[in-house]
Amino acid sequence: MTRALITGITGFAGSHLADYLLAEHPDVEVFGIYRWRSRMENIEHLDSKIRLREADLRDYTSLHQVLDEVRPSYIFHLAAQSYVPSSWRAPTETLTTNVSGQTHLFEAIRALEIDPVVQIACSSEEYGLVKPEETPITELNPLRPLSPYAVSKVAQDLLGYQYFQSYGLKAIRTRGFNHTGPRRGPVFVASNFSQQIASIEAGLREPVISVGNLTAIRDFTDVRDMVRAYWLAVTRGKPGEAYNIASGHGITIQELLDRLLAMSTVKVEVREDPERLRPSDVEILVGDSSKFRGDTGWEPQITLEQTLSDLLDYWRKRLAKQAQG
Q: Which pLDDT tens digit goes with each residue over 111-122?
């Protein structure tokens, strides 16, 4: 039986990837790495359907032990410190977790002489300072990272390329543009707006939404389309390549907020919160994913309207559950 190992399986994308593999590829045995302090609510519904193993990216020995036991055909490397503002506050921790963690993973693969296809969840944040004439962004665009998180992702990306060239490690680098949907952490913009709206609807906070920069333009894909892309990357993608995964359509954060407010049952006031503004912000990220589509046949299937509706309903149900608890 084919084995797949997901680092970060307890997280947002990791849990959705597990859902996808179990539903669409029952011949794949799903393993996941978690830390002793990982929050487990995203995978509670999977119960005995997945096989969990405790390990930490920053601990080489634990990774080596898990890989030696599982010996997967596919590794989906999703675990990371993935929140941009946190990287400003803790740059060293972000770099250590993301860069050293991936190096430990690669070195364990080499030491064990196994030959999995490894998908590395890179990021559109790597492109950073994008000029208007450079959109939509292709894989050939310069990388001009504007945060410690983005720098860490550039390093992960280039490590994948280097290990492919130096050792033949079958690394595939997916540069995912913004993706959202149910289970997205409340620190991320669409989920944060949805949580605030649902809290107001439930009478848990005053009818005021706090916002940061609303002029930035982003390219949103549903997480369920994104994880399907991850599977196509390891089964149809070319090792050593970098691939943008994006819808190709950009909207301002203001428009994103307006769409969510249109779905709400309450009227709210919008206030800018200086604490939500970053030292430097990426103004525009709209991706050209034609290379990935050409190699794999991937196309996004879920509309942004459906994604936002599902996300808002997720927070309504979660807050109702918390209130009952």
A: 999 999 999 999
